[in-house]
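S1.2 Input.
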Amino acid sequence: MTLLVTSASGANGDGFGALLAFESDGRLRGTFIDDDRIADPRGLALDAKENLLLLNSGADRILAISPQGRIIRDIGRIEGLNPGGGTFGPDGRYYVGLRTARTIIALSTSLDADAENVLPPKVVPFPRGFAFGHDGRLFLASGIGPHGEGDNSILAFGPGTSSPMRPTRLVSGPQLSPLDLTIAPNGNIVVSSEHPFGAKDAVTSVREYDAKDGHLVRVFSSNGKAEFRKPRGLRFAPDGVLGCVARDEVVAFDFVSGSCLGSIARLPRLNGQALVFLPD
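S1.3 Output.
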């Protein structure tokens, strides 16, 4: 199993600005692919059907990459795209959050058709991760932007709401400041949180919420087994372990017990944004 991590750069934290590969034991293998179309990479998702990686580049591009580290498809540069996180929807399309437009688009994995706007522009002040629940609802984390704009909540769109364009505010709370969102194997919502966002003494955690009524189920903390600073992207490994990228490390949690397993990879200046567990 290879661990792939996007490391931001520039205004997003002076990281490596590259897609990095780590061995299963946490050793750095190196840059997974060296191509100038990959700059300040953000979202990353594995298309298991075609065995391709979909990567959102800060160079206003979306790329499809082979397991051997070659770019197979390129949507081409779209001025002002500014893509953030990405995930696959129930319909098999690739969904991408747009940081500037504050919305979500969907496009085919062939990357040869026009993208479709899934939600209205500026649907939230600052999107911070999204995923589709087991019932088809789209859950969107609304967090705080780099300039302090935004709120701290989780919205639900689609099935179970009166209208796809009229979301339900499912979660809000004084201790929540979401940075990414995923769906657990049990169907619950899992978010990484840094509260207050950007504060030196911020409380960092992974929080699990019931997808039906939004109540807080439990809070995962590092308990001193990892530094766990600036948590960002979340992803479940095939064995059910939950990985979370953070500043200088990737932290793992046993989702069943809720215990922290410590750092599974460490690298100064990692500034991770998203991760994927790639089968060898």
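S1.4 Remarks. The longest strand covers residues 150-157.
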